[in-house]
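[SOLVED] Predicted holo structure with pyridoxal-5'-phosphate

Edit: marking solved, answer below. Original request kept for reference. I posted the sequence and ligand SMILES and asked for the 3D complex as structure tokens.
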Amino acid sequence: MEFIDLKSQYRAMRSEINSRIQAVLEHGQYILGPEVRDLEQRLAAYANSRHCVTVASGTEALLIALMAHGIGPGDEVITTPFSFVATAEVIVLVGARPVFVDVEPDTANLDATLLDAAISERTKAIMPVGLYGQPADMDEISAIAARRGPIAVIEDAAQSFGASYHGRRSGALSAMGCTSFFPSKPLGCYGDGGAIFTDDATLAQACSEIRVHGQSARYLHTRIGVGGRMDTLQCAVLLGKLTRFDWEIARRIELGNRYGEAIRASGARVGLLAVRPGRSCVWAQYTVLVENRDAVQDKLKRAGIPTAVHYPRPLHRQPAYEPLCDARPMPVSESLASQVISLPMSADLTESQQDAVVAALARATS
Ligand SMILES: *Cc1c(COP(=O)(O)O)cnc(C)c1O
């Protein structure tokens, strides 16, 4: 069994993907070719966002988003310590200071009730993450940002693209959203890729200039930028993958529900995360909580079940970040970091594979 089954996914869409890759090889516009614009239009329509700018990766999307907002030295950006490192990394890269706010114990997402106390006159942005595939409480976070602002809310939808939140789509739940097309994400290409979503034409223009070295016209550099384009080939791969994306998202949600029911019925001693009413979770990882994680992981490995830990050490406890933040304790993140374990998950996971995982999990936790 694979932790994420990308090969079955490729086999299901092989001709669609191959012909689109072939078309790029033939037309030869490898950088900013027609597939780039085509993908941006389709993703904007999917997310119901006015603008979409594709970029080189999810990390680049977050970095460019901060740059487009002019965030830099002297500024503070609030985010969760319980995320992939990129969320905090980009804050430091633009010269701002990351301010961590602890997460909710049952969703592992930023706890909006702790935001007010963390906001200062230096706060320029809040970056909530839709961890494991469920959007954070974006309306509440945006309301607090508006009341205490102007503070930009930049959603990190790297894991939650495809999820919904009260009828809207993750990536388009605040003034700006970013996602990643890393192969293992819910919508993944065959290399690196990412996208930025916004309804604001000025910010969209800024993002598209920053991704090509701050160019506003050929060799006219009106702002500081980066080399941050997404390859035409990777855009072509995603155009192929979009043909099955709605089915995949529905299947992920179904498999997530099925995991929950089967784990409850199995009597496994496992804690389940909550999905809030009005939201869906696309389970970029199907993550549960266990005691004695190392032993459980080892037993699962011996039963042939691959697992992973997202994430074993919260960001405020990482050696590179500890000196940069005030290192206040984040008890919920620290407790989750010691208990979380992610089980095999992808739209192509079969029900019999899933049953085998749950049976092994029940044995490993008994
Ligand atoms: C994957 C991920 C990123 C970074 O995306 P890349 O495309 O790998 O650069 C950022 N934030 C979160 C929450 C992620 O899961």
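OP edit: The longest strand covers residues 51-55. Thanks to everyone who chimed in.
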